[in-house]
Amino acid sequence: MSFISLEFVLLFLLCFILYHLVSDKGRKYVLIAASGVFIGYFNPIFLVTALVVSLFTYGVAILVEQAREKKRDFRLIYWGSISCLVLCWIGFRYANRLTGDSGFIFPLGMSFYTFQAIGYLTEVYWEEEKAERNLIDFLLYMLLFMKFLSGPIERSADLLPQVRRLSPASYSMMTYGMRLIVIGLVKKLVLADHIAPYIDGVFSSMHTVSGVQLLMACLLYPIELYADFSGYTDMAIGTGMLFGLKLSPNFAHPFAAQTTAEFWRRWHISLSSWVRDYIFFPLSSVTRRWGQWGVAASLMVTFVALGIWHGAGWTFAVYGFIQGLVIVWELRTEKIRNKVRKRIGKRLFATLSVIRTYLIFAVSLVFFKAQSVSDAFYFLRSISFQTHASWKEINIGMSDHICIVAGSALLLILLYDYFMSKGDLHLRFEKQSALIRWTVYYLIVFAVFAYGKFGTENFIYLQF
Amino acid sequence: MEKIPETITGANIRKRSAFSRIVRKSVLFAIPFWALIALYIYDDPFMVLRKYDLYDSDVMLNEHHVGWQIYRNHCDSVHFNSFILGNSCTMAFRCAEWEKYLDSGDRAIRLFGNGESMKAISLKLRALDNEGAEIKNVLMILDRTSLSRFSLLNGYGNILPAAISGESPFAVQMEFIQAFAMPDFLFPYLKYRITGSVEPGMKRMNPYGRIRDSRNNDSFNPRDKMIEQEGEAYWENRKKEFPERDGTVVVEEPAIFHNQRMVLDDIMEVLHRHNTSVRVIISPDYNQKELHPDDREILQGIFGKENVYDFSGINEFTEDYHNYYESGHYRPLLGNKLLERIYKHQ
Amino acid sequence: METTELLEILNGIFRKVLKRDNIALTEDTTAHDVDGWDSLTNMVLISEIENKFGVRFTFREIVKLKNVGDLCHAIMNKTK
Questions:
Q1: Cβ contact (<8 Å) for C19 and A289?
Q2: Structural domain count, chain C
Q3: Band of the pLDDT at B292, cuts 50, 70, 90?
Q4: Which residues of C touch A327 (CB under 8 A)?
């Protein structure tokens, strides 16, 4: 059940209405039932795996806490259960990869909820968090339908307290949520889905298309991925707000980042901060005696892990490896960059840095998107300004109509991001007169309706 | 209502009111959209929501859908077993004319699409096959553009009915609703609804009235009437639509590669199973560009040398401009001659 | 050891590790306030501080440090 489908709209409406009609206690059951239907609708087995992982985590957390209270060794329980979760997850990943198309499917959302489970267990192990005794609350933390498929990966400290005292949203929170959903729809339907088929086309026929087409696809893919994934995230967060839940932000104007290190504080934040807290900090703490080299080694391990989180296979490992390598390189060359900044001026340096960061990310995404490492290398080697027949190839097959629609959408989204980074645009917008607000609403909704590309319902991050 | 102060019970009342307020506002907000949807459902401008006996409309319809519906409307009474497939140039081939060359009792219908893709032809044959139709004769009217198209075209005018493409009916209907919501259609359409007349320049509207036969989807081209009225002046007055041809031989780039071949093989697979008598016509192109010999050979290899007729290039049929409505389409006058040529050959 | 004295020493370490001359720490300073003090440089700083004062923090102690004041207290407790 994708967010953009009739089934989901019906489920959502039913859930939303019931949520506000039942008693305070009933709300949790409404949400848990909706989440169960949502997950089970894809495939009942997905619901089973999600429930098994959730119940396992629920039990282990209590065991860890009890063992600690009774002064027994709880480390074994913790490490044993973490290994169980990781092995199970890797097992599904590889089973999926080895059997190929033969029907075995990787359970949807598993990467996301497994990481939530590991994070939660670690917090309990570190005594930062008490083990949750209320099963319903814990299941909601794990399975909430708006964040189940592709995150955000929630922290127990953020979400569990909200789930415990679940209450309906205020009016302004609801309208905020609805606006976020519409923005997500614009990103997904008016931008990502329009350009996706053409980028896919270039990647799937990379051996026959011209160098300039490869170049364009490489440059456009980060935009597609951003529009797709942040569009999904906006819808997830917006839906959460309609139920009075504040989910974690996942993106903060990523393409404004001047360094790759900064980029990763702005891109897929719930994942990057997860690996920072649970992989990078412990590792760099252990290796701190080695100084800079310890940091570098921890960084490499962390980012390769982040890459592999996306899937089994060397392409994702290389994708992560590149990120780590670039950040290490940035750490080593900070002095030089400061000198250059002084020489050429702040403004020019910032512009060049933003472009450089984008290009590095675009190149690394070729590994993310390609089927194999050798394909990715072929792709990058073949990028050029050469055309087969004419310069018209530069539009990689997109009609003028699509170029205009997607281009305008991109411009609007970047403007929106820019103003959001300067202060909450929504709060300022709410102060405008009703006439202006409703005119803008109508224009945007109508634009989505008229210019959106319906029919492709899948989000890229659904596969992870 | 939202100004109720927060008393001990106030918190709860306020929350409840937030819900009813959002519901009220949403309903209010959606009124124009509901009105448009109501109009769309009531008018059914593209004639895709309900079944009709006659597919005549002031709106340009989706030809795939119309052809398929006409087939479905009559297939119980008229056992169609002969199919004219291909692009809009099928308009030069009248079913009754073709039936003269077929066995007595064979009945033909035209299932075409504008700028038809080979993929669509393949899917139509599959759909007919799944319906249990007998596919005895097939006449395929193609050009280089159609041959090169191995994937389906987008847009409301080109999307295939769900019954043919196997797509979700919801997604197909969405495409039509969206076409309706496009400002460059919607606003002229609303104007048409108010004034009741189609003005020239209105996009995707049809000012000509009946343009097809309701039983076999034969084309009625409004230009036939103009030619009848104007005579030779028809071509004199439309020099712009008939660019000069300089008589040099131009061979087009090859169109058939691996992907196109796969679709052609799919088509042949169905035809083979039905033991179909197939005729492939490469249309006589007014611009006299010739199909690449490699493409012709591939087609002959798949459909049989004796079944492929390439009329493109410079020849007796393309020389006379009287055969054409405009540079893109030729008249039944020429279609009849081609039929005669094809079936005399045997 | 006095807090001011401690801050002076810390200032030196921060300037050296972060390669910036304009750092002036107070007890309320957090990573937010100092250019270049982030998750990537944090552990290098800690390691330098440990060497300087001959102390050793556990991982959890490090994570719980919220500002420079916390850091000073932690050092003073360890060196007592």
A1: no
A2: 1
A3: very high
A4: 40
Distance of CA A112 to the CA centre of its chain: 9
Q: What is the pLDDT of residue B2?
A: 38
Domain extent for C68: 3-78
The pLDDT value recorded for residue B334 is 94
Where do runs of H (alpha helix) occur along B44-80?
63-74
Q: What is the mean pLDDT of residues B139-154?
A: 91
Quote the CA–CA distance of A457 and B286 in Å, as a whole number: 43
Q: Are B244 and B123 within one domain?
A: yes
Q: What is the pLDDT of residue A73?
A: 85
Domain housing B4: 1-43
Residue C50: give its domain's CATH number: 1.10.1200.10
pLDDT at residue A102, as a whole number: 55
Could you give the count of Cα atoms lying within 13 Å of A5 in the half-sphere of its Cβ? Answer: 15
Please check whether residue A71 is in contact with residue A52, taking contact to mean a CB–CB distance below 8 angstroms: no
Report pTM. 0.79
| B32 with A442: Cβ contact below 8 A | yes
List the single best residue of C40, C42, C44 to mutate versus A (max A Cβ within 10 A): C40
Lowest-confidence segment of A385-399, B61-75, B228-242 by average pLDDT: A385-399
Same domain, B231 and B281: yes
Label residue A176 by pLDDT band (50, 70, 90): very high
Chains in touch with A (≥3 Cβ pairs < 8 A) = B, C
The pLDDT value given to residue B9: 43
Is the confidence at residue B67, as pLDDT, over 90? yes
Confidence category of residue A457, pLDDT binned at 50, 70, 90: low
Q: Which two tokens stand for residue B30?
A: 């959606």
User: Can you give the pLDDT at residue C1?
Assistant: 65
Q: Is residue B240 domain-resident?
A: yes
Bridge partners, residue B108, by sequence:
B82
- Averaged pLDDT for residues B294-301: 94
What the block records as the tokens of B96 is: 């009754």
Based on the fold, state whether residues B1 and B148 are members of the same structural domain: no
B113, part of any domain: yes
Q: What is the mean pLDDT of residues A76-102?
A: 83
CA B4 centroid distance within chain? 60
B279: left (phi over 0), alpha (psi -120 to 50) or beta: beta
Would you say the C-alpha torsion B141, B146, B150, B155 has a positive or negative sign? negative
Cβ B15–A454 below 8 Å, yes or no? no
Phi, psi of B5 (to 5 degrees): -70, 155
Same domain assignment for residues B103 and B39: no
pLDDT band at B6 (very low <50, low <70, confident <90, very high): very low
Chain A residues with CB under 8 Å of a chain C CB are 126, 261, 276, 280-282, 284-289, 291-292, 294-295, 298-299, 327, 331, 334-335, 338
Choose among A245, A302, A307, A301: nearest CA to A273: A302
The pLDDT of B67-93, averaged and rounded, is 94
Interchain contact, A288 vs C43, CB within 8 Å: yes
Checking ipTM against 0.90, whether it exceeds it is no
Q: Which of B16, B33, B171 sits opposite A455 (nearest CB)?
A: B171
Domain ranges for chain A: 6-168, 173-451
> Considering the domain boundaries, does residue B173 fall inside one?
no
Give me the number of domains chain B comprises: 2
Condensed to tens digits (0 to 9), the pLDDT of residues A408-417 reads 999 999 999 9
Shared domain for B221 and B122, answered yes or no, is yes
Q: Are residues B13 and B137 in the same domain?
A: no
The answer to whether B88 and B114 have CB atoms below 8 angstroms apart is yes
CB A112 within 8 A of CB A54: no
Strand segments (E) across chain B: 82-86, 108-112, 137-142, 250-251, 277-282, 289-290, 308-310, 324-326, 329-330
